[in-house]
Write a structure and sequence with these properties.
396 residues; Aspartate Aminotransferase, domain 1; 7-stranded mixed sheet; 3-stranded antiparallel sheet; binds pyridoxal-5'-phosphate
């Protein structure tokens, strides 16, 4: 195996490395404690089951839930699928209408599209220039046939944090359930399902220094008791909501990752906010304020995310030429295509702004020196591209 080149990794919104403390917690559950957590009649299965239940408590504690409200899944994509298809099916007798918003992750948007093909109706709310939905528009979109509102907690591209508590309150005034895709928020900003009155919430371990391929769905049990039809059928694991043998090492890792994230969140947020502000200010100082435009909300945003459009460049050409630095042009899941980001287009700016957007996500392994180096390298890269292109239009 060849050793990977050392890189300055600034793509923590796409995924994060597994924290060594998380890996250490997981390791015994591969070949020492290998029992099936459902086979509790013998010691091997019982011990695995105990580890799963400890992790369930850790996950619940991190979002202010009860352990029995956590359903383990393979990640936020699957959690979103269960929330949307599960509610649509289970509450079909009550109604056939879902409300979401145009800047959601594809994991929600593609479910909605499929639900439309299956005869459901979906309202896609627009957002303002910062990526926020209008609360009055949410209220107006509700009909007697609405069963679910699904609005993401924090956007994966621009970091804007939605007023979830207010949206949940509006949903509940009309006896509508509220789901939020919190893949980018959990472990990074405070998430409290009780205080925020969230009914269903998706999260994913690999966004918070846990392993890939494991996530969870919070499903409220009291006031109201929320029910979802399964998407995967089988042995009836996870109280029938998600069949399949549990990924014990992954679950143990996610529990540990969430415990660590909760403890370290406040200090990390301070550090990351300082770094993202520093990068933004330095890019503005060196490239000119008019050439660096922030995408997303100036203050209501994830501390570790920065998304800016840089005048006169195609972000794809910048990102691929930045040797030794990993940043992104948009959401990782859609960056295989050169379609302009649906999120930045939804903010109301033109395609040029979308095509010149870069996303930086700072994280646990970064240092001050790396942030400095990254700024200098990005600035040099932009200057190189600007020199090559004849025109340097300002951003509209
Ligand atoms: C907001 C959001 N939702 C869903 C997902 C998908 O999560 P997972 O990779 O765990 O399926 C992501 C990851 O890119 C995300 O950022």
């Amino acid at each position: 195996m060849t050793e990977p080149r050392p890189i300055i990794y600034l793509d923590h919104n796409a995924t994060t490395p597994v924290d060594p403390r998380v890996l250490a917690a997981m390791l015994p559950y591969f070949s020492e404690v290998y029992g099936n957590a459902a086979s509790i009649d013998h010691e091997a299965g019982h011990v695995a089951n105990q580890a799963v239940e400890r992790a369930r408590e850790q996950c619940a504690r991190a979002i202010g839930a009860r352990p029995e409200e956590i359903v383990f899944t393979s990640g936020a994509t699957e959690s979103d699928n269960i929330a949307l298809f599960g509610v649509a099916e289970r509450y079909a007798a009550k109604g056939d209408h879902i409300i979401t918003c145009v800047t959601e992750h594809k994991a929600v948007l593609d479910c909605c599209q499929r639900l439309e093909q299956l005869g459901k109706r979906v309202t896609y709310l627009p957002v303002d220039q910062y990526g926020l939905v209008d609360l009055e528009a949410v209220r107006k979109a509700i009909t007697p046939r609405t069963v679910l509102i699904s609005i993401m907690f924090a956007n994966n591209e621009i970091g804007t944090i939605a007023p979830v508590k207010e949206i949940a309150a509006i949903a509940h005034e009309h006896s509508v359930l509220f789901h939020t895709d919190a893949a980018q928020a959990v472990g990074h900003v405070p998430v409290e399902v009780e205080a925020m009155q969230i009914d269903l919430l998706s999260f994913s371990a690999h966004k918070l220094y846990g392993p890939k391929g494991i996530g969870g769905l919070y499903v409220r049990r009291r006031g109201p008791r929320v029910k979802v039809a399964p998407v995967i059928y089988g042995g009836g694991h996870e109280r029938g909501m998600r069949s399949g043998t549990l990924n014990v090492p992954g679950i143990v890792g996610m529990g540990m990752a969430l415990e660590l994230a909760t403890k370290e969140m406040a200090a990390e947020a301070r550090r990351y906010r300082a770094w993202t502000s520093q990068i933004y200010e330095r890019l503005q100082a060196e490239l000119g304020t008019q050439n660096v435009a922030l995408n997303g909300h100036p203050s209501q945003r994830l501390p570790h995310n920065l998304n800016v459009s840089l005048a006169g460049i195609e972000s794809k050409s910048l990102v691929v030429q930045l040797k030794g630095i990993a940043i992104s042009t948009g959401s990782a899941c859609t960056s295989a295509t050169v379609e302009p980001s649906h999120v930045i287009l939804a903010l109301g700016y033109g395609e040029q702004r979308a095509h010149s957007a870069i996303r930086l996500g700072v994280g646990r392994g970064n240092t001050h020196v790396e942030i400095d180096t990254a700024c200098a390298t990005i600035v040099a890269g932009v200057r190189r591209i600007q020199k090559l292109s004849a025109t340097q239009p300002a951003i509209g």
